[in-house]
Specification:
Layout: E1 3-8, H1 16-24, E2 29-32, E3 41-45, E4 48-52, E5 65-68, E6 73-74, H2 76-88, E7 96-99, E8 103-104, H3 107-120, H4 132-140, H5 153-164, H6 182-196, E9 200-201, H7 203-212, E10 217-220, H8 245-251, E11 260-266, E12 269-271, E13 280-281, H9 284-293, E14 305-307, E15 309-310, H10 311-321, E16 325-329, E17 339-347, E18 353-354, H11 361-366, E19 368-375, H12 392-405, E20 409-413, E21 421-423
Helix pairs in contact: 3-4, 5-6
The chain binds guanosine-5'-diphosphate (GDP), 6-O-phosphoryl inosine monophosphate and magnesium ion (MG).
6-O-phosphoryl inosine monophosphate binds near residues 38, 125, 223 and 227.
């Protein structure tokens, strides 16, 4: 103990990478527990930018135990490329461990993701096309190939044959695709196996050892609560559970191993891909926020949709995750706006009002935000390091947010760099605040 879970409280890209890197400073291990390389987690430190897709955001801390848990789906090509890029940039990756039980994204998963989206046409989800959905589908169908299978040619081949069998019809258009040749695929994946073998481990045991020894483990989520396959805006969601409960399943620990749950949110809203977004903005204001916030996808480069802060959705995210703290990022991006709208309820078709996040897809698709207007501020926040450095209107905005959601704010982001952060008074008693780190940590 303690175990601290970090989750996205919106539609992803809230700044989880930055928060994880900060909390990893004093933690003993960082564990990714779900998602795959649909995630793009950015860390900016010492003027350098790091974009991580699979490797936990603790890796920049030399030798830190960084675990890719059983709940993650791994594209081994992306993982080996990421490892190479890190070693090229002189980052020590010896602390990495990969769960032998994690599932592998195979070439046919990528093709099926593309084909599935193309078939949906106008109704497409806007996936990252990284094969995430088809890989989790195979996992559930018990046709998945796991990391441990990379180490045995016979088993690997047998499992690929079994996985391809029920997909014959849907893969027919790709019959001549060299990536689907059984021998080529097997050899390619065996090569990944050799490259990754040194990192493969019984990661569940490793995490237990850390917790049993009283060490601090940070569980790093990907995506966000509203992209959760059960609790998000289905079907416009990802194919895993980004909520805090999944940290237990995806790492192999029980709920009692978790002490704190930090929900990362922006001070406004964004979403990549299709699906309902009740507080979405269009036009000049959206463009202005998108440019100021650099709202372009870390993984796909797509322009992110932008909107006002949605407190109905955030309160819902706080409840389904049992959030104990908020990390409010990108407050600096809102400087210079006269008035700020925050959504406190939705209006649906025929004037119906909703205080709670609607469970019904049709209602959600018609919902628009009803707003409270709060005063804006003009000051540049990027040099603020204490709450008292913030202009009164910014403090009022944060207070309104925290009061509405019923969760204290532990951390406030005022710029992309790791030192552009405010640790609040409320963070003082929290285990994660033991991570309060000096501005320039070792890379
Ligand atoms: P993640 O997927 O949740 O890790 O978030 P992303 O890395 O996809 O997107 C967050 C973006 O916001 C990155 O470009 C970060 O460098 C940047 N960022 C994080 N915190 C702040 C902040 O407080 N202010 C500003 N301006 N940018 C931030
Ligand atoms: P991080 O961890 C933002 C979105 C996609 C799409 C939907 C399904 O960086 O916050 P998928 O490829 O998962 O089947 O796509 O989910 N999506 C994300 N949006 N941030 C992410 O990750 C995302 N991962 C998936 O845009 O709408
Ligand atoms: Mg991201």
């Amino acid at each position: 103990m303690p175990g601290i879970v970090i989750v996205g409280a919106q539609w992803g890209d809230e700044g989880k990478g930055k928060v994880t890197d900060l909390l990893a400073e004093k933690a003993d291990a960082v564990v990714r527990f779900q998602g795959g390389n649909n995630a793009g987690h950015t860390i900016v430190r010492d003027g350098q930018t790091w974009k991580l897709h699979l490797i936990p955001s603790g890796i920049l801390h030399r030798g830190k135990l960084c675990v890719i848990g059983n709940g993650v789906v791994i594209d081994p090509k992306v993982l080996t490329d990421e490892l190479e890029e890190l070693s090229r940039r002189k980052v020590d990756t010896t602390g990495l461990r990969i769960s032998a039980n994690a599932h592998l994204i195979m070439p046919y998963h990528l093709l099926l993701d593309h084909a599935g989206e193309a078939k949906l046409g106008k109704l497409q989800i806007g996936t990252t096309r990284r094969g995430i959905g088809p890989c989790y589908a195979d996992k559930a169908a018990r046709l998945g190939i796991r990391v441990q299978d990379l180490l045995d040619e016979k088993i690997l081949k047998k499992k690929i044959i079994a996985a391809l069998e029920p997909k014959r019809l849907s893969l027919r258009p790709f019959a001549k695709d060299p990536r689907l040749d059984l021998q080529t695929m097997t050899e390619e994946y065996l090569t990944y196996g050799h490259r990754l073998e040194q990192y493969i481990a019984d990661t569940t045991r490793l995490v237990h050892d850390q917790l049993d020894a009283g060490r601090c483990v940070v569980f790093e989520g990907a995506q966000g609560a509203l992209l959760d396959i059960d609790h998000g805006t289905y079907p416009f969601v990802t194919s895993s559970n980004p909520v805090a409960g999944a940290a237990c399943v995806g790492a192999g620990v029980g709920p009692k191993d978790i002490d704190e749950i930090w929900g990362v949110t922006k001070a406004y809203g964004t979403r990549v891909g299709a699906g309902p977004f009740p507080t979405e903005l269009n036009g000049t204001l959206a463009d202005q926020i998108r440019e100021r916030g650099g709202e372009y996808g870390t993984t796909t480069g797509r322009a992110r949709r932008v909107g006002w802060l949605d407190l109905v959705a955030l309160r819902y995210a706080a409840r389904i995750n049992s959030l104990t703290a908020l990390a409010v990022m990108k407050l600096d991006v809102l400087s210079g706006l006269d008035e700020l709208n925050v959504c406190t309820r939705y209006r649906g078709a025929e004037g119906a009002e909703f205080e709670h996040f609607p469970y019904h897809q049709t209602v959600l698709h018609h919902a628009t935000g009803e707003y409270v207007q709060l005063p804006g501020w003009t000051e540049d926040l990027s040099d603020c390091r204490e709450e008292s450095d913030l202009p009164p209107a910014a403090r009022e905005y944060l207070q309104f947010m925290s009061d509405f959601v019923g969760v204290p704010t532990a951390m406030i982001g005022v710029g992309p760099a790791r030192d552009a952060i405010i640790w609040t008074q409320a963070s003082a008693g929290m285990a994660g605040a033991g991570s309060r780190a000096p501005a320039s940590a070792s890379a």
